[in-house]
Amino acid sequence: MLDPKNFDPGAYVAAVAPAVGLQLSAERQARVAEALALVVKVGAAALTRPVPESAEPAAMFRP
User: Fold this and answer.
1) Do the domain assignments include residue 39?
2) In Å, how far are 14, 20, 28, 57, 58 from 24, measured between CA atoms?
């Protein structure tokens, strides 16, 4: 489980970007880390909710 209080978005971006083939400048890496920090902060509450076994995934939109 992700602990938003101990999550380091800068370190995460620095480690993951090269692993997925992204070359980010230091400025861009900082901006991505800021956005990721916000996503983690907003999403942390959702991760605390249990998901029952009977939950069905949402249908996939196919235009």
Assistant:
1) yes
2) 9, 11, 6, 34, 33
In a domain, 2, yes or no: no
Residue 24 has pLDDT above 80, yes or no: yes
What CA–CA distance (Å, rounded) separates 26 from 36?
A: 15
Q: Which two tokens stand for residue 62?
A: 């196919």
Asked, for residue 53, whether it belongs to a domain, the answer is no
Give the Cα separation of 42 and 55 in Å (integer). Answer: 22
Domain count, the chain: 1
Domain residues for 43?
Answer: 9-47
Q: At what angle do helices 26-47 and 9-19 cross, to 10 degrees?
A: 110
The first and second tokens of residue 25, run together, are 């400048």
Mean pLDDT confidence for 1-28: 92
For the entire predicted model, the pTM comes to: 0.72
